[in-house]
Amino acid sequence: MNIFEYKRQGGKLIGISFNYTKGVFSNVKIYGDFFVFPVEEIDNLEESIDGKSLTELSRIIEDFFSSGIRVYGITAADLKESFKRAIN
Q1: pLDDT tens for residues 27-78?
Q2: What is the Cα–Cα distance from 52 to 28, expressed in whole angstroms?
Q3: Whole-angstrom Cα distance, residue 74 to residue 12?
Q4: Helix, strand or coil, per DSSP, at residue 57
Q5: Which of 3, 48, 63, 68 has the fewest CB atoms within 10 Å distance of its CB?
Q6: How many Cβ atoms sit within 10 Å of the Cβ of residue 32?
Q7: In Å, how far from its chain's centre is CA 48?
Q8: How confident is the model over 11-30, as pLDDT tens digits?
Q9: What distance in Å separates the CA atoms of residue 79 and residue 61, rounded to the nearest whole number?
Q10: pTM exceeds cut of 0.90
Q11: Residue 63 to residues 5, 44, 57, 67, 79, Cα–Cα distance (Å)
């Protein structure tokens, strides 16, 4: 299990724990200093990332942020950057 925390300057903390094998994410958990409403949507996001590559993850995150779910404290770019940095 990998654990990575990212905080852009002036931004909120994003933490992710995950497995990354052969270019595929699994067992993803996302946490930090941000809010998602409805709350259970973060669980749905984690599940939708499971079994996906970084390229697929980028599209999933964009779809999540443009779906009308309210997210406060982070942007899609922040979350994508967290995953990108976590595997490098």
Answers
A1: 999 999 999 999 999 999 999 999 999 999 999 999 999 999 999 999 999 9
A2: 11
A3: 7
A4: helix
A5: 68
A6: 19
A7: 10
A8: 899 999 999 999 999 999 99
A9: 8
A10: yes
A11: 23, 12, 10, 6, 13
Nearest Cα to Cα of residue 2 among 41, 28, 39: 28
Secondary structure element (H or E) that encloses residue 43, with its range: helix 41-49
Question: Both tokens of residue 21?
Answer: 């094998």
Q: Give the residue among 14, 65, 72 at the shortest CA–CA distance from 6.
A: 14
- Type of residue at 22: K
> In 3-state terms, what secondary structure has residue 38?
coil
User: What type of residue is 84?
Assistant: K
Q: Which two tokens stand for residue 45?
A: 């996001």
Q: How sure is the predictor about 8, in pLDDT bands with cuts at 50, 70 and 90?
A: confident
